[in-house]
Design a protein that fits this description.
Order of helices and strands: HHEEEEHHHHHHHEHHEHHHH
Strand content: under 5%
Radius of gyration: 24 Å
Shape: globular
Helix content: 40-55%
Strand order of the largest sheet: 1-2
Structural class: mainly alpha
Number of helices: 15
Number of strands: 6
Distance between the termini: 67 Å
Largest sheet: 2 strands, antiparallel
Oligomer: single chain
Length: 447
C-alpha cells in the first residue's frame, strides 16, 4: 500500500510540475502582451505616446492593411519628438520579430549581445520618446508609471509571472525586470511552420532543415537528389496555391551549382526559419549609397581599418543627404573580430572588417507578404521589387563591381527570367491558421 501511495504521489508531482510551468508561461505571456502594448513606458512629454507595438504591430492595422506580423508597413518608422528635439525617424526599416531567440547577436546590425540588452536600450531610447540625457529619469519614471497604470495591474502581473514585487524593487530592478519580461515574451513569438512551402515539403517528404552540423550546400544537394528522383517518376505533389511558378522558384532557391537559375539562397536563408542568423553584405548599402552619389561611388568611400574606434557615427548614418562621408555600414560598426562567428579560419581582423562593410543580419523569409517594404532600408515595396534588385546585384557581383559583397552572391547565377519564379516561391512563405493548413495538405494543384 505504501508503494502504491508513493507511486501515486510521484505521479501527482510529475503532472503538477508541467502544469505549474504552463501556468507560469501563460502568466509571462500575459505580462509580455501588456508591456508590449504599454504606452506608459514612454516619455509623457513626447509628441505621441509610443509602445513596442506602435512599430511592431501585433494586431490589425487601423489603415486597413491587415495583419502586419510585427512590422508596420513603413519604409522607416516615425519617432516621438521630445522637448526641443525635432521629429525624426528610425534609421532603418522595422523588422519582424519571429524566431529572434535563434540568434547570437541582435538588432539588424548586431549591436546587442542579448535580447535583454536590446530591450534595456529601447526602454530608454528615442523609440519611445526619450533623449539620451533622460536615461535616469526614464528608469525612475518606468517604475512609477507601471505601479500607477489604471488599465493594467502590473503588481499582480509581475507577481504571477515571476514572483516579483515591483513595489519593493528599486527603479533599476524594475527596469531590468521589464526588459527580461519583454525578452521572454519575444521568445514566444515563433514561426508556426504552416505556409504553402511547409505543406509542399510535408507532401514530398523534404527535410524541414539541415541535419545537425550539416552544411546548407549538402542539405540542398539532398533535396535536389530527392526532387530529381521524384520528378523522374512524376510523383511531385503541390498544395493548392503552390503553382508551377512557385515550384520552379523553389528549385532555383535551393540550387547551389549549375549554369543558370542558381539562387544559392539556401546558403544564408536556411530552413526552417530561413535565416542563418549571421551577417552578410548583400550589396544593399552600396545600392543605397550609389543611388545618391552615382554608380561606383561606394567603392571610393573611405572606411578605416581595425585600429579605428567603432561605432563610427558617420558610418552609422542615413546616406540620403549630400554628404559623401555618410553611409550605413551596419554590422561593421559593432562586430568584435575576436568572437565573431562570421570570421573564417585564419582570417585577420582587418580582412574580416573589410568583408563585413555593409553587412546586416539575414532576415527570415517567412510571412514576407505581410512585412513589406523590404531590406534594411525599406526601399523595396514589393517582393518582386526586392527580387529584381537581388538579380541586379548578382549581375554586378559577377562583374566584380561590388565592394566586399558576400561570396554567396558570386555563386548565384540569376537572370530576369528567374524573378517571377522566385517571387512566387517567396509568396508561398505566408503562414496560415491550422484549419487552412490542413486544407493545403489535402488539396493538390492540378497541372
Amino acid at each position: 500500500m505504501a508503494c502504491t501511495r508513493f507511486a501515486a504521489f510521484c505521479t501527482i508531482l510529475v503532472v503538477a510540475a508541467p502544469l505549474a510551468a504552463q501556468r507560469a508561461t501563460r502568466a509571462q505571456r500575459e505580462l509580455g502582451e501588456h508591456l508590449f502594448a504599454e504606452t506608459a513606458l514612454g516619455n509623457p512629454g513626447s509628441s505621441f505616446q509610443a509602445a513596442c507595438d506602435t512599430c511592431h504591430k501585433s494586431g490589425k492595422d487601423p489603415r486597413g492593411r491587415g495583419e502586419l506580423y510585427y512590422s508596420d508597413g513603413e519604409e522607416v518608422s516615425l519617432l516621438p519628438a521630445a522637448g526641443s528635439r525635432a521629429q525624426d525617424t528610425t534609421l532603418r526599416n522595422t523588422p519582424a520579430l519571429a524566431d529572434l531567440e535563434l540568434g547570437s547577436r541582435f538588432g539588424r546590425d548586431g549591436r546587442y549581445a542579448s535580447l535583454e540588452e536590446l530591450l534595456q536600450d529601447k526602454l530608454v531610447s528615442s523609440h519611445i520618446g526619450w533623449k539620451a540625457a533622460d536615461r535616469e529619469r526614464a528608469i525612475d519614471l518606468l517604475q512609477t508609471n507601471l505601479l500607477n497604470e489604471p488599465n493594467s495591474d502590473y503588481e499582480q502581473l509581475f507577481r504571477a509571472a515571476y514572483r516579483l514585487d515591483i513595489e519593493e524593487l528599486s527603479p533599476q530592478g524594475v527596469y531590468e525586470a521589464t526588459a527580461i519580461a519583454l525578452a521572454n515574451y519575444l521568445r514566444l513569438i515563433r514561426s508556426e511552420l504552416t505556409s504553402g512551402w511547409d505543406a509542399f515539403a510535408d507532401m514530398n517528404r523534404i527535410p524541414i532543415g539541415p541535419a545537425r552540423d550539416e552544411a546548407p550546400k549538402h542539405y540542398a544537394g539532398r533535396i535536389a537528389g530527392r526532387i530529381s528522383n521524384q520528378e523522374g517518376r512524376v510523383l511531385i505533389k503541390r498544395p493548392m496555391g503552390f503553382g508551377q511558378d512557385a515550384y520552379e522558384g523553389f528549385k532555383t532557391f535551393f540550387r547551389v551549382d549549375g549554369d543558370a537559375s542558381v539562387g544559392n539562397c539556401v546558403s544564408c536563408h536556411v530552413p526552417p526559419s530561413f535565416t542563418d542568423n549571421l551577417f552578410h553584405n548583400t550589396g544593399i548599402s552600396q545600392a543605397d549609397y550609389d543611388s545618391r552619389h552615382g554608380d561606383g561611388a561606394f567603392n571610393e568611400l573611405e572606411v578605416p581599418g581595425p585600429d579605428t574606434t567603432r561605432p563610427r557615427p558617420s558610418l552609422l548614418a542615413n546616406p540620403s543627404s549630400g554628404d559623401r562621408n555618410l553611409a550605413d555600414l551596419g554590422y561593421w560598426n559593432w562586430v568584435d573580430p575576436a568572437t565573431a562567428p562570421e570570421r573564417g579560419e585564419g582570417e585577420g581582423a582587418a580582412d574580416l572588417l573589410k568583408r563585413l562593410v555593409g553587412a546586416f543580419r539575414t532576415p527570415s523569409l517567412r510571412n514576407l507578404a505581410r512585412t513589406r517594404p523590404y531590406m534594411h532600408n525599406g526601399a523595396y515595396d514589393s517582393i518582386e521589387d526586392a527580387v529584381t534588385e537581388i538579380v541586379r546585384i548578382n549581375q554586378l557581383a559577377r562583374d566584380g563591381k561590388l565592394r566586399s559583397i558576400s561570396p554567396e552572391y558570386e555563386v548565384m547565377k540569376l537572370s530576369p527570367g528567374d524573378i517571377p519564379h522566385l517571387t512566387a516561391f517567396l509568396e508561398s512563405m505566408d503562414e496560415v491558421d491550422a484549419d487552412t493548413f490542413r486544407e493545403l495538405l489535402l488539396n493538390f494543384e492540378s497541372d
